[in-house]
Amino acid sequence: MRSDRAYALLRPEVLSCRIPPGALLSEAEVMRRYELGRATCCAALHRLAQDGPLRAAPRQGYFVSPVTPADVAEIYTLRLELEPAPALRRAPAPRRAEDRGDRGVARHRHR
Questions:
Q1: Stretch 81-89: mean pLDDT, rounded?
Q2: pTM of the entire structure?
Q3: Angle 79-82-87 (CA atoms, 0-180°, nearest 5)?
Q4: Helix locations, the chain, DSSP H
Q5: In the predicted model, what is the mean pLDDT of the chain?
């Protein structure tokens, strides 16, 4: 669907701040910049407004929502939840003392 493609083009531009927070996006500008038809453009902008990165302003266009301290805190919370799991899966399993050659330590543990 064309509106999904348009959404996929616009969303990273907004979320990465390549289109800065507070910027006004008009339908005409987005249509021209991304070579989109009006219906496709409107659907993508409307969906972005529903998802939160844009705020609709009647008779003006769409404003890019500002990044708030709460947004930054949420991002870091999510990163802490998501990133340790892959790191732990990649980390080598801890080796036992016997496997490392720490014979003295291993002998002491078995007494």
A1: 71
A2: 0.63
A3: 105
A4: 2-15, 27-34, 38-51, 69-82, 84-90, 97-100, 103-110
A5: 82
